[in-house]
């Protein structure tokens, strides 16, 4: 049996009509990917399948400094214990070869090391020699040239071990990234209009009074790109210039500063609008370098901003005020931002059509005036209500008139 044809033509059916309705572009959520630089500044990079592990032993000192504290302390302890045990074995062999450990030896023959009668006493003497304690109960004599040779070797090797281990501990405690813990960045970056140009801005600050000398800020945009030849570059680093590029990016980090990048034709953000920025897959890396004033060691602080952490149409609130002749910084407002009038188009469109900025500012001014009018009208209404309520209260509190009747029957009005 053939299917019955519908009375409504197929071109006017519901599926056909739905297919012809223009659809708005749907922006899918950006797939969460790993950050290249964490907010704390740590590099989120894992090294795998390193076949030439011996290269790390060619620079032993740097390898020891880069190790975690628990491994460094274990190596520090084991190095001294092993050296003491090694030379304790040497002193025991010297005493054994000279016959100092023989219980039947003649007391006339002088020992190589006095009061070394066992391995335990040899171990204690090894510690005394290397650490230069010198309790006085055990000492070397001139009877054995071998003992003098062992003494010289232990002193030289002990000094080398002390220099390496103590230098490693000192470098770990005075590492430059410890100073970077007091260099802070704003939680979010902002994009707003400054001097009639779209600008990418962040805020940096130093919590210590000791300054960072020759401080410099560098910005980089990391994104996945594909070359015209089809080569995929997963981590393409693009340098971004800041406002102080003429002066070599050097800043005077006495108080918190706002680092500004003008989005011009050379910027990787030039073609991105507010909507496209949220859907793009890029990361802005901020690197702050300088020399610590107190130690003279170069330090570096890093952070990054992904698209979710970039606020379009916001501006940082001022946090530096002058109070009784002293500039005061309120760090509780360090990352606070406020909304400002900002075109949602890209910087390219803004350069091609400058009227967009004028229209945006005019709309912002009109909305600001309307809000002021509403506030003033609300204030007037509230004041009128207060006046009316006060009048009602005063009328309710007024003393009423009382009528008295005289004995003649005529009314006598009196107010009490």
From TrEMBL:
GO annotation (BP), single: nervous system development
Entry keyword Transport: yes
Membrane topology category: Multi-pass membrane protein
Keyword Ribonucleoprotein (UniProt): no
Family: Belongs to the inward rectifier-type potassium channel (TC 1.A.2.1) family.
Pfam family, one: IRK
PANTHER family per UniProt: ATP-SENSITIVE INWARD RECTIFIER POTASSIUM CHANNEL 8 (PTHR11767:SF11), INWARD RECTIFIER POTASSIUM CHANNEL (PTHR11767)
Protein name: ATP-sensitive inward rectifier potassium channel 8
Gene Ontology, cellular component aspect: monoatomic ion channel complex; plasma membrane
Domain Inward rectifier potassium channel C-terminal: residue ranges: 183-353
Organism of derivation: Culter alburnus (Topmouth culter)
Chain ranges of the Potassium channel inwardly rectifying transmembrane domain: 37-175
């Amino acid at each position: 049996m053939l299917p019955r044809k519908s009375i409504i033509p197929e071109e006017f059916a519901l599926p056909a009509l739905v297919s012809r309705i223009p659809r708005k572009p749907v922006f899918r959520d950006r797939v969460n990917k790993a950050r290249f630089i964490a907010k704390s500044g740590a590099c989120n990079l894992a090294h795998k399948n390193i076949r030439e592990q011996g290269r790390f032993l060619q620079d032993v000192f740097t390898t020891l400094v880069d190790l975690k504290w628990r491994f460094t302390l274990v190596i520090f302890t084991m190095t001294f214990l092993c050296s003491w045990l090694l030379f304790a074995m040497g002193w025991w062999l010297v005493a054994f070869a000279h016959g100092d450990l023989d219980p039947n030896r003649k007391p006339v023959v002088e020992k190589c090391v006095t009061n070394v009668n066992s391995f335990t006493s040899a171990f204690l003497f090894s510690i005394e020699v290397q650490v230069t304690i010198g309790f006085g109960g055990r000492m070397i004599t001139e009877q054995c040239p071998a003992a003098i040779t062992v003494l010289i070797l232990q002193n030289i090797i002990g000094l080398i071990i002390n220099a390496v281990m103590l230098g490693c501990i000192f470098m770990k405690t005075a590492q430059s990234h410890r100073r970077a813990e007091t260099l802070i960045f704003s939680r979010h970056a902002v994009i707003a209009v400054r001097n009639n140009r779209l600008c990418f801005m962040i805020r940096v600050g130093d919590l210590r009074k000791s300054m960072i000398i020759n401080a410099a800020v560098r910005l980089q945009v990391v994104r996945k790109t594909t070359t015209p030849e089809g080569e995929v570059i997963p981590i393409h680093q693009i340098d971004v210039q800041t406002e102080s590029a003429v002066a070599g990016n050097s800043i005077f980090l006495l108080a918190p500063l706002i680092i500004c990048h003008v989005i011009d034709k050379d910027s990787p953000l030039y073609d991105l609008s507010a909507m496209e920025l949220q859907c793009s897959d890029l990361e802005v890396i901020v690197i702050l370098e300088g020399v610590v004033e107190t130690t003279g060691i170069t330090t570096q602080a890093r952070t990054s901003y992904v698209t979710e952490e970039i606020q379009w149409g916001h501006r940082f609130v001022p946090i530096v005020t002058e109070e009784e002749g002293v500039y005061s910084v309120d760090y509780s407002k360090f990352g606070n931002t406020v909304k400002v009038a900002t075109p949602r188009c890209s910087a390219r469109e803004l350069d091609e059509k400058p009227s967009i900025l004028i229209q945006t500012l005019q709309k912002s001014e009109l909305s600001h005036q309307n809000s002021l009018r509403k506030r003033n009208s609300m204030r007037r209404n509230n004041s009128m209500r207060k006046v009316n309520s006060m009048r009602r209260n005063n009328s309710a509190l007024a003393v009423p008139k009382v009528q008295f009747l005289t004995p003649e029957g005529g009314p006598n009005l009196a107010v009490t």
